[in-house]
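Appendix B. Chain record.
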Amino acid sequence: MSRQNYIFTSESVSEGHPDKVCDRISDAILDAFLSEEPEARVACETFATTNRVVIGGEVGLSDQNRLATYMDRVPDIARTCIKDIGYEQDKFHHATCEITNLLHQQSAHIAQGVNASDNKDEGAGDQGIMFGYATNETDALMPAPIQFSHAILRRLAEVRKSGQEPLLRPDAKSQISVRYENGKPVGVTSIVLSTQHADESQSSADIRAIVEPYIREVLPDGWITDATEWWVNPTGTFVIGGPDGDAGLTGRKIIVDTYGGAAPHGGGAFSGKDPTKVDRSAAYAARYLAKNVVAAGMADRCTIQLSYAIGVSKPLSIYADTHGTGDVDAAAIEAAIPKVMDLTPRGIRTHLQLNKPIYERTAAYGHFGRAPEADGGFSWERTDLVDALKASV
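Structure tokens predicted for this chain:
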């Protein structure tokens, strides 16, 4: 039996964290190509440091002659992202930082494995394993530590960008340690918040006075007690931040992007990858399936694993684990899954409507635990498979 009484910690990072700046730029470029061609192939990586952004990777369009036209837009896309995040520092400014675009045409050897042809279905864009997870400990069916770590930073970004808190700056990290009793989250034992700020004269106490009301607003009533430890800007001054303070790279925050360490991770990053890449689309499908299992009342917790081989359309394996909380046998869930969803790369894209420019919004504050949106954004958070799963077990 799994432990029922324990403390578990997760962290999040803000949209202004150097790695998240890079994720945002990569996903914005992906969205631009998908806006022009829903079947565009994109594998875009971004690197950011003092006064410089470097973008590289592979892109593919049905008419490669059009590629140069879209390449010309890449620097402006990057600058727009940096401006919206809020960087106007002397050594990292949206208007003055140097943008280098090294994107090039997709490898023909990759394309031949992925593209459909007369004698084969479209294959997966790579080999690998992908995990999805859900738990009924929060309304979003997400682990509480990562869900509320994200919520803290989203709220601070809102008040920073609205002008309500003009002394906050874009780069920030949060971390909360959640106490569980009888398997359910009941309180916070420690809160860590480091946020970039405007003035070197501001102390840790000054920053805590700014952020504490918003943290208390976000966390559930009663979770913060007199015993909760606060660590706000524990190193002191944090004025130099963003890519000027630390280099950033696409895909380095895979645990922040998913379940905060509460569930396994296959190792593949999401941002900058079009949905033929199962690192992304199958991870979304696995979350979708796990969430629907929990929403159907089949288990309090559920992990789904999928595996793929490059150029092969169907998953090689489907694995379910309900961690001893299931009312339905895990093998029955595994048997039901292919009955309710086509898990080929094209099947996933069609079912979840992934060939849309819906990815830039995923780049910060988690890919999971978000509300599904009318235009198809976060479609993998729907719970519309509940009835089909119940009928199939």
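Further analysis of this model is presented in Appendix C.
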